[in-house]
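Form 12-C: Joint structure prediction
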Amino acid sequence: MITEKSRLKSLGNQLFFTGPTIIFFALAVLIPFAYGLYLTLTDMTSPINPIKFSGFGNYKTAFMDTAFWESMWLTVEFVVATVLIINILGFILAFLVTSGVRMQNFFRTSLFTPNLIGGLILGYIWQFIFVQTLPSIGDKLGIEWLRLGWLGDEHLAFWAIVIVTIWQSAGYMMIIFVAGLINVPKDVMEASTIDGANAWQRLRNVTLPLMVPSFVVTVFLTLKNAFMVYDVNYSLTAGGPYGSTTMVSMHVVQKAFSENIYGVGQAEAIMLFVIVAVITGLQVYFSKKMEVAA
Amino acid sequence: MKKTLALFLVFLMAVSLTACGGSNESGSSASGSPEAGSKDGKVSIIITNGKGEIATQWEQAAKDFMAANPDIEVEAISQAVGDTVNLLDKLTASGKTVTMAMMAPDSIVNKYKDFGVDLSGEKWNADTVYGVKDASGKVAGFPFSIEGFGLVYNKSVVEKATGGTFDPYSINTRDKLKALFDKIQASGVKYPVAYQTENWSVANHYSTQFLNQAEDPSTIVEQLKAGTFDLASNPVWNGYYDTMDLLASPQYNKYGERPLGKYYDDAHLSVGKGESAILFNGNWAFDSLKAVSGESFGFIPVPVDNNPDNPLNNKIAAGPTNILVINKAATPAEQDAAKKFLNWIVYDQKGQDFLVNQAQIVSAFKNNPNKVTNPLGAAIAEAVQAGKTLPFSSNYVKVEDWGNILAPDIQKYIAKKESRTDLAKVIENYFKTQK
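Section 2 - Result
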């Protein structure tokens, strides 16, 4: 039987443990989010000027902003490319470094290292590679497609961002896959071997189904990261050439902080949030259903 | 349990919202009350600096100023280099009243048009022609720095090619510039030009130069807004793009085959090392050039046509690029303290030393005896003294819009993906939306 007193006590207990987290979560996420929502309903070019209420006008402008939808579409292409390649590559790498090759711990560490470098620095390092290193290699060896800097061509610049993102994240996803692979029970594998399954059948019918929880996590992380990409985009191409690689986050930042249309920029940010929340929510919901028990 | 948690969260959000509204109100009312800025009889002011590279000098200046004025307390805040969020916006949003802010000159007619107090009665107006006027025609901006842009050249490379001392003002037609490129090429430099295509460079700086064909560039801006100025048939507008074609051509430009790309660092390295000779940029380029060697540099005016008597071919665009504006919302005592700081920069020996020797800024004031050591800054200072300057044309447009909205089209033009007539239309249409 739960008395009034014990209920209060348990609430107190709960607040004691979760309260500090809730406070900081609210300070860093909830309050700015709510304030941001409020700002989308106002007309503000700078905090110097008084805030004017403007209804849903900002959302209307944001919906009609073709540049926003163009950058959104580009981001979707980017999401498809990176999510697919990072997960496939991460899984292959994980498979290789758990297969018992020599120095596999060394490989695990070195493949993970790029993830420890911040996106901005990574972008500047690769900018140097794309602008100076690769062209000079192309020049010396007569490789035509390397001779000119990649960042000046709209398609190559897009793939440059994809390559750097893959290089940054594949190692991280690999670590998650390694944890999943190690946890595949040995007895199940042995049983399937005794049943006569070959390596491909074991991978297809035993390992992969048991790895679904890992995939739920990695696909979620890569999806979210790809939709929110900003730092690599900023430091590698800054949206160029001629604005052709402006991803949606960068477009929002430009609207709000560079063109000083805070309300519209914030409204676009909210729209981006809703889109990403729905897509990742659906992804987690449906892929959870694919999980099986060993 | 979930319900109580949810309720608690809702409550938290409600509290936070009201708290936000409350703090804003108290922020603005505090700035109006007389005792807000004073602490034990002292007036305390906040001054912001948008040039992150002189953050330490800015703080030192505040200290020196306080030593001379013990009744004033100065809080000197600098924007971090590369920070995109405006410092003034940030501080204001956090409830502070910035007494004096540094901003771009176009801001006082655009974004912050209601921000500043009238400074036209200040003494320093007698010592400069660069005071920046607001929309009503009153001086509201203190010219903190003078900067200029043009064709930056590496002296030793150019002098080796021309033989003997080189006078940059001797290049006053496009054909002479082309002849210079040929000479440099003949002297063994494969690509005389390293043309970098950053959005602010090709748009805000290069593409606004045509405004200087009128004595007062804002008259052309007005005509563009009214839709009565035809760019495609304007010889000066076309002339600047003819020169740009020359600068970006595969024949002379290091990046000519693919003119777009992130070439800023590489271009400055090339000209700094002497592998190329010329690039288009302003006096701030010296920071990127000097890291390489002890070479010296100067400015060649950007030629627009082949008439050697055209003033546009003989002058360099230079003008105030950072102005200090005093906040209307500050108390009179705070405003006076800020005005004192401005006078200190102009008339106090230490203030003059801070501006030119320490911060290496070209002073807008005739009475400042100091000279910058940076050769590009010195070239601008000489041009200012010799009267060989045109207005800094980007001060007459909304630089954010040019960098974001128009720059992609100008870059497309450079990459030959858009025709000049289309570019003219894009710019004209942009101005028609600006009322």
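Section 3 - Comments
The mean pLDDT of chain A is 88. Residues 90 and 170 of chain A are 5 Å apart (CA to CA).
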